[in-house]
């Protein structure tokens, strides 16, 4: 590679990194500024007045902590359901030479790709009927409608990689099918279960429209809905808004680092072999 | 495979029906949380719903929706939004994937950094951009002013023309990493010896790209394009938070029109009809996607 080209390539990558990260930097910078500095022109990229006051305000004067806990409960609940059901389904799909397993996978793919705005209508009607508006259970149920099919698509690859002979060996030694699954196959599929679990957690955490419709009371909002409602206020306090947005983002960035290895398989869930 | 004695048949083949048991629980669960609501949605699209009262109107909602100018405006916005976003995702994502290939040891770290816009909640990302776009104190006007592109006070989200561009920009910022990741994985699978052979034949960098890289990744580009189109057509969060569909419907993509119809204008039946029409579009794209990836890849 000739030198001018190499320099151009690195410059282009540098621009991409700046474009990708600058909004996050600006969120942090704004969250740390006192209100007076937020409305200063020209805006300051680094300020001697940085403080954690904005975070203190949103954590004490607004139910941000409550939203955080709601998000965590709902995401954890739907993740547990999704990984449990997906493990059963993946085992059934990969171990029994079922003729219609391909059809099941296509149906699950379809379920995974349904427009969430279409489903929000029946969910709203059903949850109103069942008196489940403003409950964690409602959100756990609707999030799992997406995360179960997703987790199956991710887990099937992991299960397929475990040779059937291992089941046979365990059962030859007297294990029942369920014991073989619990004691032998699930431990072998553990990395897949963890990856699928982290992904479903992340997607539930990031979800917006279902919680927007299925919660009406500020105490029951999840992070994304809570932050978005702060925008609609008469006078937006941008430093507080950015502090809340940052709190919503932190767990995601942590998960992102953990998930790096599984990014390709997870985001595409089966579209790329690799 | 040689025939085995009955006692030596792998248990897995003998008890095929056990597989149904393992599948039954998840599938029944999904019937409850996906299929039932889907049927309910289609049913709702045939009702005129006012508060607690619902009356059957057959295809009335569809006739009303398909006859309304708002729907077709929204359809046009959706088509333009999706084409603009997907085209930019693919071009920029492909470019970044190629750049990553030549990044050597920094490749993994750079990929992770460039993925962050995709990992953050779209609603939160749109909130951040709302602040960047802010007319009077937003940093975007400041930065554009430095290079003479803005006189300050420009309300990007307040004008129909620029609001559409702004929504596309945010979606491109968020969606490009996804395509980059897919294509980056695809580029890894191109056999090295094909490049060596091309070099021996005296092919320059451009010819290598044209005759070695492109044919090898054409499949993955098609996969990325259909997946990305499905994701973009359904996109609600970004536009809903940035503009809510405004100004004057300039950014009202179909999912946002659906939401505004159902939950702002309180017309759940009409919203369900829009949703079913959106579903038909998505379904067609899923069929296209499956026909490209092939059933062999989906068979467990």
Give short descriptive properties of this protein.
heterodimer; A: 274 residues; mainly alpha; MetI-like fold; B: 300 residues; two-stranded antiparallel sheet; 2 strands; globular; disordered C terminus
Give an overview in words.
- The complex is a heterodimer of chains A (274) and B (300).
- Helix content of chain A is 76%, strand content 0%.
- Chain A contains 14 helices and no strands.
- The longest helix of chain A is centred in the N-terminal third of the chain and has 32 residues, at 64-95.
- Chain A is globular, with a radius of gyration of 23 Å.
- Chain B has 300 residues and is mostly helical.
Q: What would you give as the CATH superfamily of the largest domain in chain A? A: MetI-like
Strand content of chain A: under 5%
Structural class of chain A: mainly alpha
N-to-C CA distance of chain B: 21 Å
The backbone outline of chain A, from C-alpha atoms, is globular
Quick one: biggest sheet of chain A? none
Q: What is the CATH architecture assignment of the largest domain in chain A? A: Orthogonal Bundle
Tally the structural domains of chain A. 2
Return the CATH topology of chain B: MetI-like fold
User: What is the CATH third-level topology name of the largest domain in chain A?
Assistant: MetI-like fold
Counted up, domains of chain B total 1
Q: What is the tally of helical segments of chain A?
A: 14
CATH class of the largest domain in chain A: Mainly Alpha
CATH hierarchy: architecture of chain B: Orthogonal Bundle
Please give a quick description of this structure.
The complex is a heterodimer of chains A (274) and B (300). Chain A is an all-alpha fold. Chain A contains 14 helices and no strands.
